[in-house]
Amino acid sequence: MASEGPRWYVQLVLFMLCLTPYANAESHRLQYNLFAMVSSDGEPPSYSAHGYLDDELFLHYDSESQRPEPRGTWLDGLVETDTWKKEKSNVKEIGQDFKITLRQIMDQSNLNTAFPLLNVTQKENREGKVTLRCCAYSFVPRDIKMTWLQNGHALSHSDHERGIIQPSGDGTYQTWVSIDVHSEESNYTCHVEHQGRNQTISVPLGPVPEASRKYWVLAALTFAGVIAIPFVVFFCGARYRERRQQQDGLPV
């Protein structure tokens, strides 16, 4: 964020220009770059400022040192002046205001944060394994990290199958991650990281739900029925031709 210096900054520039005996009437540019950073671990926000005169750095200030430091030997005689002391006070005050403004912006952005709702499902697949799927719903912002754990240890990313993060239609997002495991294995949990918050959800204990098994039985019966239909049609057609031949007195 760049901020043009207010009147007391201009006074400082005029003072510095007076140190140059042959300063002409051309315009000069004073610019301050202000930086504030807030971490998610609860640490106090940090602040720093850099002052430039005609694109040349002449001042550095940060919240650790709590004082402006001159950059350039031509400023050595200015450090003990009232102008520089006023600069120190003003830069510090701006830093306090800037950190408050940043905190307000962060608080406002938190209104648009929604942590995910989680759900875990399991079902048998065609290979005889069990597919565990962890679904995350209704979260904002979009960035999210989902990992399967066994006994508290993260499993290889190559074993994961991940869905795309897509809009839910209500301003939030949804996605999923799945993994195939052997039915006799257990103690799996889904770990989710979102906006600095960690969530875990465990796979329910016990056998795979019966509904999942019925799905594959029904699919097998359907497939068998599809195969049987041509044989039934062929058999009925053969019986019909045989009966017609008998009625017409033709040899069967």
From TrEMBL:
Q: Could you tell me the keywords of this UniProt record?
A: Disulfide bond, Glycoprotein, Immunity, Membrane, MHC I, Signal, Transmembrane, Transmembrane helix
The Ig-like domain covers which part of the protein? 116-202
Per its UniProt entry, which superkingdom is the organism in? Answer: Eukaryota
Membrane topology field: Single-pass type I membrane protein
Do you know which PANTHER family this protein is assigned to? MAJOR HISTOCOMPATIBILITY COMPLEX CLASS I-RELATED GENE PROTEIN, MHC CLASS I-RELATED
Residue ranges spanning the membrane: these are 215-236
Q: What is the lineage of its organism?
A: Eukaryota, Metazoa, Chordata, Craniata, Vertebrata
Organism listed in the record: Vombatus ursinus (Common wombat)
Q: Which InterPro entries match?
A: Ig-like_dom (IPR007110), Ig-like_dom_sf (IPR036179), Ig-like_fold (IPR013783), Ig/MHC_CS (IPR003006), Ig_C1-set (IPR003597), MHC_class-I_related (IPR050208), MHC_I-like_Ag-recog (IPR011161), MHC_I-like_Ag-recog_sf (IPR037055)
Q: Where in the cell is it found?
A: Membrane
- Protein name according to UniProt: Ig-like domain-containing protein
- Gene Ontology terms: cellular component: external side of plasma membrane; extracellular space; MHC class I protein complex
Q: Where is the signal peptide?
A: 1-25
According to its UniProt entry, the protein's GO biological process terms are:
antigen processing and presentation of peptide antigen via MHC class I; immune response
